[in-house]
Design a protein that fits this description.
Layout: H1 4-14, E1 18-20, E2 32-34, H2 36-55, E3 60-62, E4 68-70, H3 71-77, H4 79-82, E5 84-86, E6 92-94, E7 97-100, E8 110-113, H5 118-123, H6 125-132, E9 138-147, E10 162-172, H7 177-195, E11 202-206, E12 218-226, E13 229-240, H8 242-251, E14 257-258, E15 265-266, E16 269-276, H9 277-288, E17 289-294, E18 297-302, E19 313-317, H10 323-344, E20 348-350, H11 356-366, E21 370-374, H12 376-381, E22 383-388, E23 394-398, H13 402-410
Parallel strand pairs: 3-9, 19-20, 19-21
Antiparallel strand pairs: 1-2, 4-8, 5-6, 7-8, 9-10, 10-16, 11-12, 12-13, 13-16, 14-15, 17-18, 21-22, 22-23
Helix pairs in contact: 2-9, 3-8, 10-13
Length: 411
C-alpha cells in the first residue's frame, strides 16, 4: 500500500507540481524542479509570506542579496570551520559549495554559494542604516536560494542541495530580546495557520544548548509530523550580537548602531525566524491532501488555502460538443481573467476535456477551490453554477459581478 508521502510524490509529478531534477538524464540527487502548478504554488506562498512578515510591518525592510559571496564572509560567520557533517573514518565534510571567481583558479579568487541567506543581510546592515535611517527595533528580510552539499539528500523536498529560504533578521536592544522573541514566536504560529499547515501536527521544540548552532543563545524548532518522522519545519533563533560583531572585526567596518537619544553606539542583538520554502510546500501538501467520497465516488483532493492554490477558479462548459456553450464559457473565462487583475486573473483556468465529472475530479486533485460551470440555464438567465471544492455544494451566481464574488471569497 502506498504511503502518504508516496501518494504526494506521485500526485506532484502527475499534475505538474514537482519533477525530479534533470530527469531525462537519470536525475540529479537532491534537486527538484517545480512544474507549472508547483511554480505557481511556490510564488503564492512567497507572496503570502512577504505580505505577512514584510509589507504588514512598517519596521521591516526588504533585501535581495547575491548568492555568490567571498571566502572572507564565511570566515567571519564561522561557516568555514564549523559548517560540516561527519563522514566515516572520523573525517569532517564541509557542506558549502566552493567555486572560483574569474578565469584563473587561485585561492584568493575563492568564493562560495551561500549555505544560508542570513549573511547577505548582515553584510548589508550598514547599507540599510545609511539609506533608510531605521529606528530600533527593525528587520531586514529576504527570500532567496541557498545551497548545501548534503551527503545524503532524502525525503522528497525535505532535504535537498538547492533550496529557497524565507528569512529575516530583526535587530533589537539586548534588554528587549525576550519580548521580541516571543512576539515573533506568536507571529510564526499565525503564519502556520494562514498558509494552511496543520497546527495539530506542528510542535515546538526548545533546542538544548549542545544542539544549537554556534551563534545561537536560544533556539526553538517548529517541528512538523512528516510521514518520515517529526522533523524541523522552521526555526526561531536568538543570535545575540555574534554576526555583526564578527563582521565588524573581520571587515574593519563600524557596524554599530548610533542611538540618537543617548548619543551612544552599540551593536544590536538579533532575532532570526527562518522558513524553508520546500519544507513549507511539503507540509502544505501533506496538510491539504485528503481522500473522501462524493456523489458515490471516491476522490482525491487538496484542501489548499485559496490564497496559495495555483488555480483559484476553473471555468467549464457543461459539455464540450455544443458550440454555443463552449463560446459562452470562453467569453466568461476571458472576461474573468481581464477583470480579475493580478490577484485573480492569472489563476483562472479553462477546461473542456472529458466529461464534467472528470473535470471536477481533476480540479479537486490540484486544489482548485471553485469551479464555474456554464450550462443551458446560463444561456437563458446569464447565471453560472459555482461548485465548492471541499463540500461539493453548488450555487447559482450572475455572470455580472462574478470577479468580485471570487475576490471576496479570497479575502
Amino acid at each position: 500500500m502506498e504511503t502518504k508521502l508516496e501518494k504526494i510524490v506521485s500526485l506532484a509529478k502527475r499534475r505538474g507540481f514537482v519533477f525530479p531534477g534533470s530527469e531525462i538524464y537519470g536525475g540529479l540527487a537532491g534537486t527538484w524542479d517545480y512544474g507549472p502548478l508547483g511554480a505557481e504554488l511556490a510564488h503564492n506562498i512567497k507572496d503570502l509570506w512577504w505580505n505577512h512578515f514584510v509589507r504588514a510591518h512598517k519596521d521591516m525592510y526588504g533585501l535581495a542579496s547575491s548568492v555568490l559571496m567571498p571566502e572572507k564572509v564565511w570566515e567571519a560567520s564561522g561557516h568555514l570551520e564549523g559548517f560540516s557533517d561527519p563522514l566515516g573514518e572520523g573525517q569532517r565534510f564541509n557542506l558549502m559549495f566552493k567555486t572560483e571567481i574569474g578565469a584563473v583558479q587561485q585561492e584568493k579568487n575563492a568564493a562560495y554559494l551561500r549555505p544560508e541567506i542570513a549573511q547577505g543581510m548582515f553584510v548589508n546592515f550598514k547599507n540599510v542604516l545609511d539609506t533608510m535611517r531605521p529606528a530600533l527595533p527593525f528587520g531586514i528580510a529576504q527570500i532567496g536560494k541557498a545551497f548545501r552539499n548534503e551527503i545524503a539528500p532524502r525525503d522528497f523536498l525535505f532535504r535537498v542541495r538547492e533550496f529557497d529560504l524565507m528569512e529575516f533578521e530583526y535587530f533589537v536592544r539586548e534588554a528587549e530580546w525576550e519580548k521580541y522573541f516571543e512576539f515573533w514566536r506568536k507571529e510564526m504560529w499565525a503564519w502556520i495557520e494562514e498558509v494552511g499547515i496543520d497546527k495539530n501536527k506542528t510542535h515546538e521544540l526548545e533546542v538544548p544548548e549542545g544542539d544549537r548552532a554556534h551563534y545561537s543563545k536560544r533556539t526553538i524548532d517548529f517541528e512538523f509530523e512528516y510521514p518520515f518522522g517529526k522533523k524541523e519545519l522552521y526555526g526561531l533563533a536568538y543570535r545575540g550580537d555574534y554576526d555583526l560583531k564578527r563582521h565588524m572585526e573581520h571587515s574593519g567596518v563600524d557596524l554599530r548602531y548610533a542611538d540618537l537619544a543617548s548619543g551612544g553606539k552599540f551593536i544590536p542583538h538579533v532575532i532570526e525566524p527562518t522558513f524553508g520554502l520546500g519544507r513549507t510546500i511539503l507540509a502544505v501538501l501533506l496538510s491539504a491532501y485528503a481522500e473522501d467520497e462524493l456523489g458515490g465516488e471516491k476522490r482525491v483532493l487538496l484542501k489548499l488555502n485559496p490564497k496559495v492554490a495555483p488555480v483559484k477558479v476553473a471555468v467549464f462548459p457543461l459539455v464540450s460538443n455544443k458550440e454555443n456553450l463552449v463560446a459562452k464559457a470562453k467569453e466568461i473565462y476571458k472576461n474573468l481573467r481581464v477583470a480579475g487583475g493580478w490577484k485573480l486573473g492569472a489563476a483562472i483556468a479553462f477546461d473542456d476535456i472529458g466529461n464534467i465529472g472528470k473535470r471536477y475530479r481533476r480540479q479537486d486533485e490540484i486544489g482548485t477551490p471553485w469551479c464555474a460551470t456554464i450550462d443551458y440555464q446560463t444561456l437563458e438567465d446569464n447565471t453560472v453554477t459555482i461548485r465548492d471544492r471541499d463540500t461539493g455544494k453548488q450555487i447559482r451566481h450572475p455572470v455580472e459581478g462574478l470577479d468580485k464574488y471570487f475576490e471576496g471569497m479570497l479575502g
